[in-house]
Amino acid sequence: MEVSPILLVPDFNAHILNSVEIETYLDEQRARVDAALKARMPAEDTRPDVIHKAMCYSVFNGGKRLRPILCLAAAEAAGAAGDAALMPGLAIELLHTYTLVHDDLPCMDDDDLRRGQPTSHVVFGQANAVLAGDALQTLAFEWAAEQPAPGPYAPGAFVTELAQAAGSQGVVGGQVEDLAAEGTRPSAETLYYIHKHKTALLFRAATRMGAIAAGAGEKALAELDEYGLNIGLAFQIADDVLNATSTAAVIGKPAGSDAEREKLTCVAVHGLDRSREMAAQFVQTATQVLKAGDCAAEPLLNLADYIIQRTH
Amino acid sequence: MEVSPILLVPDFNAHILNSVEIETYLDEQRARVDAALKARMPAEDTRPDVIHKAMCYSVFNGGKRLRPILCLAAAEAAGAAGDAALMPGLAIELLHTYTLVHDDLPCMDDDDLRRGQPTSHVVFGQANAVLAGDALQTLAFEWAAEQPAPGPYAPGAFVTELAQAAGSQGVVGGQVEDLAAEGTRPSAETLYYIHKHKTALLFRAATRMGAIAAGAGEKALAELDEYGLNIGLAFQIADDVLNATSTAAVIGKPAGSDAEREKLTCVAVHGLDRSREMAAQFVQTATQVLKAGDCAAEPLLNLADYIIQRTH
């Protein structure tokens, strides 16, 4: 698919790949992640088969695999070779998948479509969707614990990082405030809380876990932490912009649904033009942190650009 | 509260404490677990406060703390001193609490009362109940990873044990088959699958994690594994018997609700008398395994009896 930039990328991004090169890189990394997921997910006919079918349905639903790709790229930037960050990356993807399954439930965002396909509760019923989400979270932590973190980190560092990003003061906290903010007066402070917690902390966990897998020092960890957080903030703003401007055929769910539900989005708070500027600024911050430090590897710089160029 | 045995305990249980002694032991251990939970749960006014209120509401809802008490007692039986098994035990209790919050949801068992109190979704709404359960599961794994397991176990063994007991081939799998079995023809095979997965595997994880915390050898681990599994099976049968024979005032939720919903219970499959015999047999197996081995500590033997004597 051709990439039609929805945001003007500032010209300081001289490293930018053309759209074909970025898509090739992403396709390769996505295939790497998909192959690893296929090899490790329980078979669909494992008893009870309905839960394993539901888990696989949501895991293999055309996800972009951005978080594991970021985890792998961060590990590479911090000097790791091979698959050191693969299991932590897969764990993050499962965690992310569980949050989507639960977010789509009728009592939450009540979405019937995700990536153009019927959502889990539409296909398997609400009870099985809740339980499939629960089991995906459990499996995420099982995978995060499979490989102890290298020194100087605590052996359980992957589990701790994932849990802190995912829990009541992470993704769950963001979703709570997101639901509570529907129909309320737009607030920049609440918007930032939601974007940071619902989205950016898991991106940050991805780059931090990559750094940890590489046994990165304090400085590299801090750089990749700041990069991940800023990329995550840019990603969520781009998502808000896409929902407001794109079509259902492109984003795989009803366009304009945020506005219809009076969701607290960046577009609602800051308007479309300012939202685009803000996303570009977060990307600029992310790439500048890397360029000023030790982890300015090309994949991370290119991924930063892709975040705000993506059309789906 | 006076303990009125609902099951005749076979006379081979010569070690049995009288009811006052058992209650005193349980009260002391429960206070120990409660104090540790109070010290470690996030404060209710942590942002977003509704999710932290919901989490604390379900954690401090009068639970018996049987699983952490079993974890601590197993560790003691395997030679651990002090609080080696406290964090793993607390993690199991949080995991158990999350499953109760989700089981009570309208799309699952649709229970409005738990331990005599309105359930989480009644008090906080369905979305917050789903999210509170999610966050309790996350916190369970954060706590399970806090302390690496001692050699010869892998550092992440507490997380692995908890995840395998909790996931799609553990508690979640049991709940899936439990829901699917409602209104179907009673089957002893399906009943055993449900009881083992929905309940007994988490009891087994409790005693296994206690053993691991103590650095137990293979033989002691195997004994405590078999003890935990059998105690868990007995516990679930006693639960089925209580639901069929007790009153709402005693069990804190409508009595006879299983039969009304055509739940697949031991009473439905095997009848009341045979259910009582089966529970006593599982307890006998559990205690005999310990008495023939190295872990026949009094607390575990007494806990086995309590499992089928309890009235709530």
Descriptive notes:
The structure is a homodimer of 312-residue chains. By secondary structure, chain A is mainly α. Chain A has one domain: Orthogonal Bundle (Farnesyl Diphosphate Synthase), CATH 1.10.600. Chain A contains 15 helices and two strands. Chain A has a two-stranded antiparallel ribbon with strand order 1-2. In chain A, helix 10 runs parallel beside helix 15. The longest helix of chain A is centred in the C-terminal third of the chain and has 28 residues. Chain A is globular, with a radius of gyration of 18 Å. The termini of chain A are close together. In chain A, 52% of the residues are buried. The N terminus of chain A is likely disordered. At the A-B interface, helix 2, helix 6, helix 7 and helix 8 of A face helix 2, helix 6, helix 7 and helix 8 of B.
List keywords for this structure.
two-stranded antiparallel ribbon, homodimer, 66% helix, Farnesyl Diphosphate Synthase, globular, mainly alpha, 312 residues, 15 helices, disordered N terminus
Chains forming the largest contact: A-B, 53 and 53 residues
What is the share of helical residues of chain A?
55-70%
Helix- and strand-based class of chain A? Answer: mainly alpha
- Average pLDDT of chain A works out at 92
- Secondary-structure element order of chain A, as H and E? HHHHEEHHHHHHHHHHH
Q: Which CATH class of chain A applies here?
A: Mainly Alpha
CATH architectural grouping of chain A = Orthogonal Bundle
- Proportion in β-strands of chain A: under 5%
Q: What does the main sheet of chain A amount to?
A: 2 strands, antiparallel
Specify Rg of chain A, calculated over alpha carbons.
Answer: 18 Å
List the domain count of chain A as a whole number: 1
The CATH topology of chain A is given as Farnesyl Diphosphate Synthase
Shape estimate of chain A? globular
Low-confidence stretches of chain A: 1-14
Question: Distance between termini of chain A?
Answer: 10 Å
Number of strands of chain A: 2
Which oligomeric form is depicted? homodimer
Main β-sheet, spatial strand arrangement of chain A: 1-2
CATH level-four homologous superfamily name of chain A: Farnesyl Diphosphate Synthase
Q: What's the number of helices of chain A?
A: 15
